[in-house]
Design a protein that fits this description.
By secondary structure, the protein is mainly α. The chain has one domain (2-41). The protein has 2 helices and no strands. The chain has helices at residues 2-27, 38-41. The model is unreliable at 44-49 (pLDDT under 50).
Amino acid sequence: MRREQEKLEHGIRVECKDAIEKAIAEKFDGYTLPGMPQRALSGSTGRNV
């Protein structure tokens, strides 16, 4: 049962990673990612990018 849960969670993480990479490939212009606040892109430090 534990092994099945780990396998399922791994699959979900891979799907999430793939979706993030696809969104970045389609929308990132080299400087900004539309719809993302600058704070999220700077690593939540609160610094201006």
